[in-house]
Design a protein that fits this description.
- Among the domains are: about 160 residues, no CATH class; about 40 residues, no CATH class.
- Helices cover about 55% and strands about 20% of the residues.
- By secondary structure, it is an alpha/beta fold.
- α12 crosses α13.
- The strands form 3 sheets. The chain has a 6-stranded antiparallel sheet. It has a 6-stranded mixed sheet with strand order 8-12-13-3-14-15, sandwiched between helices. Strands 9-10-11 form a 3-stranded antiparallel sheet.
Length: about 575
């Protein structure tokens, strides 16, 4: 239930704050006073498209704030969105900037507008002229019938239908790509066989490149090794040539003698010994390296051939050997997936056959429920239409068998005639605006038995009717308000008289800026407003007596303090 609605800088409404309660609330006022702005504001909370044109001139943003009393499941959804509730009440906000940017808030948390619309769409519905037009569509007519029939299998059917559609799409894709998959499998197998035949090892290309360079530069390596060995150990051909090992030996002897004479030089002698040993080790290692430099033409040829094999792989499957190995791993996984496609096709075919059987059974049950509900709903709506001064009206749901669709296997069309002897025809083609209003109201009153605690907003539901019909519309709205919250924008006093709460919208202008003001009417003020709505003077005794009669019919007597005469305060509208 909507407990309060606040608008700021919204169109002609500068500031408006409505405290709302259960039952039936009406909004009245002169034509163009801004009543529809309040409905439009509520529509923005329900996800209406933002338009910078609604921002009041000279202001930077328009604001609509609604406080709602929600039930357990909806409160859980508020928390899922990150919002908070004050016990069972939640504040929602929609803000539109002068640049057209929109912002939505639920329980203090910013959310997408679509999330706000989904949340409140389950607790409130706005019926305007667009709603009458939508009643003419096959989709809305099916929704109305299902709202009354409430087929137990419908939710399960919809889920199964979506599952079947997904499975069929996947199956079609697999079959369409069968040849493409076969070609891809052949290419993957060929590539993997090439790689498997060569059997490359990680890092092998770098090791082979280094080995090939070593084998090809053998003469230069020997020359450099001999030069280093001569510098370290001396030359075999010239025993007088200096060497690092010999020189370090002499230095070690001198430092040892020095340390014997001066203890401060002991560390120097120790280091000389260490350096001498390192030089000797280095000389031995260089000699060993030189001994290993043996020419091996066969190994050089084998390395070249192996590198050529690896290069053939890197040309096809990646710039490096690591890339080739990664391609092989990915190709193996992809090939396994492709090879499993045939099994997937069999599984999908089996699933689709199973789902078809389930869908056909559920569709039959749904159709039977709809036929039963259609007969009962037609009779109940006929009674309502008779009370709404359409005693000969006939509303009929025409159900024809159709292929399985997302909502069952029925083609549903709502047929209507208001005149005896006339065959029912499609509602949207034969019903006038006033007839559509009454048909829609009759349906809502009947459906209200299946929906309680909802908020219904009717924007000029009485369009095109008046007099006694207006009284009956008022009675039905009052009956609907017994189980749901009803908010009505009306021009008919006959409808407004049945309200539990009455707000009047008045327009004022200073010649440059027009402003609409909203205020709640007391009991005696309501009589004056009803008198004005009936075309009389708000202070006319005759008009006030007529207004009193309307209120009395609605069960809301209003009398002056004397108890005999009507003496309402003058209307400020």
């Amino acid at each position: 239930m909507l407990t309060s609605l606040r608008l700021g800088a919204f169109g002609v409404v500068d500031e408006a704050d409505l405290e709302l309660g259960p039952g039936m609330t009406v909004l009245t006022g002169e034509t163009g006073a801004g009543k529809t702005m309040l409905v439009s504001g509520l529509g923005h909370l329900l996800g209406a498209r933002a338009d910078a044109g609604i921002v009041r001139r000279g202001r930077d943003k328009a604001i609509v704030e609604g406080r709602w009393r929600l039930t357990g499941p909806l409160l859980d959804r508020v928390r899922d969105l990150g919002g908070e509730a004050d016990e069972d009440e939640v504040v929602t906000l929609r803000q539109v900037s002068a640049q057209g940017r929109s912002r939505a808030v639920v329980g203090g948390a910013g959310v997408p507008v679509s999330a706000l619309a989904d949340l409140l769409g389950e607790t409130a519905t706005i019926h305007g002229q667009l709603g009458q037009t939508r009643l003419s569509t096959a989709e809305r007519q099916r929704e109305v019938l299902d709202a009354y029939a409430q087929p137990a299998e419908l939710d399960r059917y919809r889920k199964a239908y979506q599952e079947r559609r997904d499975a069929a799409a996947e199956l079609a894709q697999l079959k369409d790509r069968a040849m493409e998959r076969a070609r891809e499998e052949d290419l993957l197998r060929f590539g993997l066989s090439e790689i498997e035949e060569v059997a490359p090892q990680a890092g092998e290309d770098d090791a082979l490149a280094a080995e090939q360079t070593r084998l090809m530069d053998l003469d230069e390596l020997r020359r450099l090794a001999a030069l280093a060995q001569g510098g370290l150990s001396g030359s075999e051909d010239d025993y007088t040539a200096p060497s690092a090992v010999a020189l370090l030996g002499e230095a070690r002897k001198a430092l040892t003698s020095l340390a014997e004479r001066d203890p401060a030089a002991e560390s120097l002698a120790a280091r000389a010994v260490e350096v001498g040993m390192l030089a000797a080790d280095l000389a031995a290692d260089v000699a060993g390296y030189a001994d290993d430099l043996v020419a091996d033409p066969l190994r050089l040829e084998a390395v070249g051939e192996r590198r050529a094999q690896l290069a053939a792989l890197t040309r096809k499957y990646g710039p490096t050997l690591g890339d080739v190995l990664a391609w092989a791993e990915d190709a193996t996984t992809r090939l396994e997936r492709l090879e499993s496609s045939d099994g997937r096709i069999d599984q999908l075919t089996h699933d689709i056959a199973r789902l078809d059987r389930e869908l056909e059974a559920d569709a039959l049950a749904i159709s039977e429920a709809r036929h039963r509900a259609a007969e009962e709903l037609e009779e109940r709506v006929k009674s309502e239409l008779t009370a709404l001064a359409m005693p000969h009206a006939v509303l009929r749901f025409c159900l024809e068998e159709a292929p399985l669709g997302p909502h069952g296997a029925d083609r549903i069309e709502l047929l209507f005639t208001a005149n005896p002897g006339s065959a029912p025809a499609p509602l949207g083609k034969v019903a006038s605006g006033g007839e559509l209003s009454r048909v829609r109201l009759a349906l809502e009153v009947v459906l209200a038995d299946r929906t309680s605690g909802h908020t219904f907003v009717f924007d000029e539901v009485d369009a095109g009717v008046g007099g006694a019909v207006g009284l009956e519309i008022g009675r039905r709205l009052q009956r609907l308000a017994a189980t749901s919250q009803v908010i009505v924008v009306t021009h008919l006093a006959q409808v407004a008289a049945f309200a539990d709460a009455h707000f009047v919208v008045a327009k004022a202008s200073d010649g440059q800026v027009t402003t609409s003001d909203v205020r709640s009417l007391g009991a005696d003020e309501r009589a004056a407003e009803l008198a004005r709505m009936m075309g009389g003077e708000s202070s006319s005794a005759t008009a006030l007596e007529h207004a009193a009669e309307l209120l009395a019919r609605a069960g809301i007597p209003v009398r002056s303090s004397g108890g005999a005469d009507w003496s309402p305060r003058p209307s400020r509208t």
